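hey so u asked for the seq, here:
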Amino acid sequence: MKLKPGCAAVYKQRHDEIWPELVALLKADGIREYHIFLDEESLSLFAFQKKSSDASAQDLAQHPIMRRWWAHMADLMEVNADLSPVVVPCPEVFRL
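ran it, structure tokens below
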């Protein structure tokens, strides 16, 4: 994912104030850890999640809370027509 220039502080603030209903939705989907990192030079975001072994098969992208969050964040980052963040796959190149 990628931020728009000048939006890093607001992006962090909005995540510091994440909606309780979104946290509940993510946890209900089996997400037990969610990390987002920012490369301040390129404004690239890298995110990964750890899900529990009993994670649900729920499609978060279709959930109204997720769609509201995307709309809330759309002014800060590169987004698709449906306001979902533009995501570029990062294939794994090493694991120890």
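The mean pLDDT is 94. The first strand starts at residue 31 and ends at 39.
lmk if thats what u needed
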